[in-house]
Amino acid sequence: MPIEKEKAGLTQTVRIRELYSDDTVVALNAALLERGVEIGQIISVLNVPGQAMGRPVPPQFRVLYRSN
User: Fold this and answer.
1) d(CA 36, CA 24)
2) Which of 10, 38, 50, 64 qualifies as a cystine partner to 43, CB 3.0-4.6 A?
3) Are 16 and 44 in contact (CB under 8 A)?
4) Integer CA distances (angstroms), 49 to 18, 22, 38, 56, in order
5) CA-CA distance, 52 to 46, in Å (whole number)?
6) Under DSSP, is residue 59 helix (H, G, I), strand (E, B) or coil?
7) What is the pLDDT of residues 14-63, one digit of tens each?
8) 61: closest CA among 34, 17, 22?
9) What Rg do the C-alpha atoms of the chain give, in angstroms?
10) Alpha helices (runs of H) in 1-68, residue ranges in sequence order
């Protein structure tokens, strides 16, 4: 029986999306709430370092999540 469940799960299409937010927990939570992302959908949260040279970019969080 478990094998049949695994086979059924392989036929479903899962879309992976990403979002970027400021590197604060408050901004991250606001971005997740705005898009309606729940905890079970999150694959990973990555810290993206800022860039000081050239075009300055502040540090950010990159979130990979499964869409509905």
Assistant:
1) 18
2) 64
3) no
4) 17, 11, 25, 11
5) 19
6) coil
7) 899 999 999 999 999 999 999 999 999 999 999 999 988 888 889 999 99
8) 22
9) 16
10) 2-10, 25-35
Token representation of residue 47: 């810290």
Distance CA(18)–CA(62), nearest Å, equals: 7
For residues 5 and 8, what is the distance between their CA atoms, to the nearest angstrom? 5
Residues pairing with 44 in the sheet: 64
Q: Which of 27, 14, 6, 24 is nearest to 64 (CA)?
A: 14
Single-letter amino acid code for the residue at 59: P
Q: In angstroms, rounded to a whole number, what is the distance separating the alpha carbons of residues 67 and 19?
A: 12
Cβ pair 60, 20 in contact under 8 A: yes
